[in-house]
Amino acid sequence: MNVSSIRFCLILLLAVCAGEFKLRCAGAEEPVAGDPDIGYRLLTEKAYLPPYFDQETFDYVWRVWPKELRAEAEAATAEQRRQMAFSRYGLTVRPNDPEKRPLQYVVDGRGQWTLNCFACHGGQVEGRVIPGLPNSRYAMATFTDDIRKAKVKLGKPLVSTDYSSLVIPLGTSNGTTNAVAFGVALMAQRDADLNLNKQITFPKMIHHDMDAPPWWHFKSKDYLYLDGFAPKGTRGLMQFMLVPKNGPNKFRQWESDFQHIYAYLESLEPPKYEGSINDKLAARGKLAFENHCASCHGSYGETPDYPEETIPIEEIGTDRARHDALTAVHHKHYGESWFNYYSRDKQTRNGPGGYVAPPLDGVWASAPYLHNGSVPTLWHMLYPDQRPRIWQRSETGYDHTKMGLEIESFKQLPAEARRFSEKRTFFDTTQFGKSATGHNYPDKLTEAEKQAVLEYLKTL
Ligand code: HEC
Ligand code: HEC
Fold first, then answer.
1. Which among 36, 179, 295, 363 could disulfide-bond with 267, CB atoms 3.0 to 4.6 Å apart, if both were Cys?
2. 348 CB contacts (<8 Å, ≥6 apart)?
């Protein structure tokens, strides 16, 4: 190589570097337009947490099931057994996936399984799998208990997730999780730049289970979460990866991935109800809805409008554990951190004092209702004094009359429900954080208006 070609190469190299530099600068200033398809692929195929268990453990897990179920699994084929495991833990196959991989876990080429966002945010209604629909069947605690037992029997090493369920309750009814407390615990030990500081002791924790909200509401909101404390932004979506193994640099590296994930969330549309709708009745329901519900829940149709109203906790009267669990101290700590761009653009709303009325599009699909998942159908939302005290859903049944989960209700927890794995198939509204009280607004409707509003809700 002669001097002039070396010079040429150097100039070329400089030009490429400058180009790259310009791109990076542009990226830092204006948000890069994310691609929803890439977002979905990242969510289902890239592991952001340490792997949790392997295929061998999953294939073995039926051996730790209760006796009767184990006997049934023993007599079944491997494929049937896999279906039984999916059903026990609330897993579904990804839509249009010839390999039939689970939506809720990333499974890599070496057969390592890693939890992803769809564990809580991807479910099914009447057997139709909908990414972004809350997973009302996810049995996080039972799955974790079973996997731990299977690993012990197989002599496999335990990882931190295996212990987490011994330290912090994961969820006491299937379909709901103690997700907010996970966030509080994990965030408490990080400084504003997300460096881990294990010296800090955990704050006082109020454990309570929540039903995840549908992701198709994301695009209508400016602030996220039930109390609307967090300004919407790319970085805020990354909180869920706050396990001790993920250091501050990982979050910075992954920020561009989450621009695609953000775009994916923005792209989601509510699923349409495919059952029959009485149009005349629904039109009457629309009028009643506009008079009694729209001021909080917004209007739908040609010119949609969503007010994003926060209703004081004393007024709404639904379960207050969530309100008490996330304090102004947490809001502020989060607000001043990297997740909220150090409050550069928008402050968090510290101690907002209530719950935000959610949009109701696609509401037919997202049973059970209220933030803690305590109300099984829309009909029970409209008849507050008829809400069941203890209920158990059928596996995938949908009640097209009451609009929501097909359930059986109980006065007391049946004596047979002795094991935790069985207890978690019931929803017991007498337990802490699980009350189905409040939101009595429908009491203002006449009987005929209630029927009409129920019909109207099918159209949203
Ligand atoms: C263990 C269950 C669980 C997992 C896993 C999970 N979430 Fe959530 N998510 C929840 C719950 C519960 C809420 C409601 C919290 C609240 O409002 O206080 C929520 C709320 C949200 C919201 C706010 C929605 C709204 O309308 O206000 C977004 C956005 C979100 N999650 C995104 C994600 C992303 C992205 C991931 C993966 C990186 C993820 N979640 C993983 C349970 C989970
Ligand atoms: C004053 C404000 C307000 C009014 C009026 C109001 N709601 Fe609500 N609604 C809320 C709030 C806040 C929540 C969330 C409560 C919670 O999850 O604890 C909610 C929750 C709901 C939910 C459950 C949504 C879900 O996904 O869990 C439904 C359904 C609902 N409302 C229907 C109605 C109907 C129908 C009316 C009119 C008869 C109405 N609401 C009137 C504030 C209101």
1. 36
2. 229, 230, 231, 331, 332, 334, 335, 340
